[in-house]
């Protein structure tokens, strides 16, 4: 039988140390670094730390890729290298001040968390895998650490870029939901036709899989609200990208507010889209539509009050607010009898 590394004490200790560090990172707030913040030095240090973690993952994986296992002394050295590199990456994150923006800090924290999680997973795979040859699971785990570490080179470097990215991600989710909604409505009376076969339902005559005439009346304004969500996000994205600045604390804070509200749009859209599928609970649909409308109005208010929206841009804000109100009023009118 092939040799097994068993459960090396050094690797178990590192796993516990990294798990503790992961808990702190997930706690949210970063510690404030002492002294002045220099962006160039910060990003250089973060890149070096992530690269070092990637290299340590490679060394660890190769050492446990074939028998015999590393000696106890070699295991101690490998474990120390992994722990030092990963904790150094976390330490660099903690040097990013709150004043640089919560959206940027969240992006850096999430990237650091992925590195720590990836390294813990790699260690766990090594601890439980018989030492015969490099397993597929170990290869995948090693590649996962590499990918997590390489993210540092694609990360936004300031809060404007981080907020633009956050809004772009929300826009992508909303666009997918909009296309799904359009497709369901153009396929006729059965929105489940592409995911359910006849035998799945027993009978296609089951009316729970079709829209009633009253349901269909609601689909138009619901689609209008989702379209408004897409356009709102697109216009705010353009405003942040074109006029976003991070020179003042107030600018940074306003950008963070826009990122936060944009993050509320996509789940609200998803809830509304799901509630349009039959059997439709029209009261639940109205409540979800009202929630989305409220989020969109709040985003437009924050945009209008922020530095990214000069007076010359207020027309589109007012137009979109009117579009949200129009579609929501239509939904209220069609569901008035339920109240």
UniProtKB/TrEMBL annotation:
<feature type="domain" description="Cyclin-D1-binding protein 1-like C-terminal">
    <location>
        <begin position="197"/>
        <end position="301"/>
    </location>
</feature>
<comment type="similarity">
    <text>Belongs to the CCNDBP1 family.</text>
</comment>
<feature type="domain" description="Cyclin-D1-binding protein 1-like N-terminal">
    <location>
        <begin position="46"/>
        <end position="186"/>
    </location>
</feature>
<dbReference type="GO" id="GO:0005634">
    <property type="term" value="C:nucleus"/>
</dbReference>
<dbReference type="InterPro" id="IPR026907">
    <property type="entry name" value="GCIP-like"/>
</dbReference>
<protein>
    <recommendedName>
        <fullName>Cyclin-D1-binding protein 1</fullName>
    </recommendedName>
</protein>
<dbReference type="InterPro" id="IPR049317">
    <property type="entry name" value="GCIP-like_N"/>
</dbReference>
<keyword id="KW-0539">Nucleus</keyword>
<dbReference type="GO" id="GO:0005737">
    <property type="term" value="C:cytoplasm"/>
</dbReference>
<keyword id="KW-0963">Cytoplasm</keyword>
<keyword id="KW-0131">Cell cycle</keyword>
<dbReference type="Pfam" id="PF13324">
    <property type="entry name" value="GCIP_N"/>
</dbReference>
<dbReference type="Pfam" id="PF20936">
    <property type="entry name" value="GCIP_C"/>
</dbReference>
<dbReference type="InterPro" id="IPR049318">
    <property type="entry name" value="GCIP_C"/>
</dbReference>
């Amino acid at each position: 039988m092939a040799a097994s590394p068993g459960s090396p004490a050094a690797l178990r200790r590192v796993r516990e140390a990294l798990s503790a560090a992961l808990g702190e990172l997930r706690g949210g707030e970063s510690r404030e670094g002492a002294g002045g913040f220099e962006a160039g030095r910060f990003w250089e240090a973060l890149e070096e730390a992530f690269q070092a973690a990637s290299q340590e993952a490679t060394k660890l994986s190769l050492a446990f890729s074939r028998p015999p296992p590393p000696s106890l002394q070699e295991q101690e050295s490998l474990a120390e290298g992994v722990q030092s590199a990963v904790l150094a990456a976390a330490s660099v994150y903690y040097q990013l001040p709150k004043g640089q923006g919560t959206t940027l800090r969240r992006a850096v924290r999430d990237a650091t968390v992925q590195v720590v999680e990836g390294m813990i997973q790699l260690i766990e795979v090594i601890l439980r895998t018989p030492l015969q040859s490099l397993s597929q699971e170990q290869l995948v785990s090693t590649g996962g650490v590499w990918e997590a570490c390489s993210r540092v080179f694609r990360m936004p470097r300031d809060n404007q870029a981080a907020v633009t990215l956050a809004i772009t991600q929300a826009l992508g989710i909303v666009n997918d939901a909009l296309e799904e909604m359009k497709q369901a409505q153009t396929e006729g009376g059965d929105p489940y036709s592409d995911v359910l076969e006849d035998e799945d339902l027993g009978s296609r005559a089951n009316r729970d899989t079709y829209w009633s005439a009253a349901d269909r009346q609601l689909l138009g304004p619901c689609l209008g609200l989702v379209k408004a969500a897409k356009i709102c996000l697109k216009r705010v994205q353009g405003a942040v990208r074109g006029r976003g600045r991070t020179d003042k604390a107030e600018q940074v804070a306003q950008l963070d507010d826009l990122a936060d509200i944009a993050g509320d749009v996509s789940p609200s859209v998803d809830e509304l889209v799901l509630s349009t599928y039959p059997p439709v609970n029209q009261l639940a649909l109205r409540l979800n539509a009202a929630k989305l409308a409220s989020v969109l109005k709040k985003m437009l208010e924050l945009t209008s009050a922020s530095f990214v929206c000069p007076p010359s841009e207020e027309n589109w804000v007012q137009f979109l607010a009117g579009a949200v109100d129009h579609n929501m009023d239509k939904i209220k009118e069609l569901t008035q009898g339920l109240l």
